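DATA SHEET
Item: assembly model
Revision: 1
Owner: S.N.
Input lines:
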Amino acid sequence: MTDRIIRFLRDRRPSTPCVVVDLDRVEENYRALAGALPNSRIFYAVKANPGAPVLKRLADLGSCFDTASVPEIEMALAAGATPDRISFGNTIKKQGDIARAYQLGVRLYAYDSVEELEKIAASAPGSKVFCRILTDGAGAEWPLSRKFGCVPEMAQDLLVKAADFGLQPVGVSFHVGSQQCNVEAWDGALAQAAAIFRHCEANGIELSLVNLGGGFPTRYRNGVPTAEIYGRAIDASLKRHFGNHMPDTIIEPGRGMVGDAGIIESEVVLVARKSYDADERPWVYLDVGKFGGLAETMDESIRYQISTPHDGGEDQPVIIAGPTCDSADVLYEKNVYRLPTALKAGDRVRILSTGAYTTSYSAVNFNGFAPLAAHYI
Amino acid sequence: MTDRIIRFLRDRRPSTPCVVVDLDRVEENYRALAGALPNSRIFYAVKANPGAPVLKRLADLGSCFDTASVPEIEMALAAGATPDRISFGNTIKKQGDIARAYQLGVRLYAYDSVEELEKIAASAPGSKVFCRILTDGAGAEWPLSRKFGCVPEMAQDLLVKAADFGLQPVGVSFHVGSQQCNVEAWDGALAQAAAIFRHCEANGIELSLVNLGGGFPTRYRNGVPTAEIYGRAIDASLKRHFGNHMPDTIIEPGRGMVGDAGIIESEVVLVARKSYDADERPWVYLDVGKFGGLAETMDESIRYQISTPHDGGEDQPVIIAGPTCDSADVLYEKNVYRLPTALKAGDRVRILSTGAYTTSYSAVNFNGFAPLAAHYI
């Protein structure tokens, strides 16, 4: 919780629910990541928070941008990034979107299948491409499916094929899973990447780039290792697997860049018991829920810290839910949260580290509620 | 799939993804429900699809409206409904929103706790209120949590208390769970409602209304009983539990009103294999996913039927996912879907019965993608 956000909330009393994002904290996070991984270029994952002021601040700092769609490319350009600082990192792209990105000057594309490679070859001729490999995501708090990445044996074939298609195969990418709290998680994927580099070299293809992806965590209820600790672990793994032939590297922080730069302020709508059973936890209903910006509470994956005006007083275990008429809009029931017994309707609570994956996830008007308002300060 | 939608898609070739909603089908569904439950007033659950043309058509037909928020009340009024045809059915309401609803003329409110009752008494004095009781939702395909409703013993006390607060306690509501495929599901809740009526009568409170809620299903991959069958089962239960003192009843169909009136047209973005293991299912990526309107695929709860231009040819088991960079944006993996082997990027597919809980659920701009476009015909 930054002093600037606290002052803003105190002085401005914005309508709830809203998220307030401290751009200075974003800058601090950028500098910490840049310092921890001095040899890596930073491609901010725009999807984490595409707010124009966030993109502008990062563009001014020299950040590059990992984008998922043509609108995200356009937002990065509008923020002042040149096309050579933009990667089209989604492995699932429409043919027409690749053509449009190429027209906008983007020359760096992700892929993980021969079908996607053919589309890139057709619509973004001569571009640089990197192939995403599958990792297991063990240790990550947000689930990583097999949706992205191919097996390493396929990746090496696809990199050779990229050259056949007239593209420039530059390297390999992977993602160790979002909110990755195991600093060693990169090691296995880097071993695989190094093996792919060797295979390609034997086939006359010189790779130069390892895209280390994102995964850098933000602090929720539990502490997380610092950027420096991640940096040292990744550096050690790079040396272990690449020896004297160190590749260029890029990282794609999203949550680690903006997560702890934002706070959602929300109003308690109702605190209620639904039975006379004293063992049954009361329900606390907030004016923000799963469809209003807290989508990452799906399966209670991300467990945010919540502060209230009554902290320090007597507390009790509660169930926390959102304001919609949807029975699935329950935030925390399996995970037991304790909130002050004095908490009541009308109180304002703060949901910490909500700068990432909140604004853009929120539903357009589910139950008639407006999307989450955002203030960038 | 209605002929009008098929013609619209053929002649207009709208950009994908989009949903096309046939208002005539909405009208047919309204008439079928009205015919099946001739003694019930219909309060359409606006949250299922708040599209202005849907509300307008239903208002013209004489429908009432179950609303979840002040904006939904305003939408119903804008569609032509008078305030006496609007219920504020959310049991979780801000004090200021109750006051605003009252100012707009709404005089019918739901509640399930003493705290909410106090808010209604303060901001909507003299209004009619009904108390929601908890049901278990067995047989429903969309999960029903304990988020709404109190135990019957509490409900009867809260109804007596409503009179003490100067409100008009009119009855009881419950919800048997969305996409409820067991036509007998209403019976247990009606037995509880009747017991509450008797208890209140003994305490000098004459209740008159049972709000039977929603739950009426729409057809997805499997057939569902007709409205008539639901109507007969509910009517038999009402007679069984209320005998000669039949209450007024209302129903709140949402999915059952608009579900099968809509079809999403989506483009295949990519069909890809990620390994050389022939047993591994290929991935089919569509341009619509969990964050673009198909939120109800959460935990694969709602299993939509998908039609393709190659239906009837050879097919294969696939995994189906959305277009975003989010690993959680997978639609069907545990449930095995088979799609034609000939399916390829650029093909258009149709996702059937997607008129409910799609447009308003879609994320405001996650990954830069626009919310689901809607065409009402």
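QC remark: Chain A has a mean pLDDT of 95.
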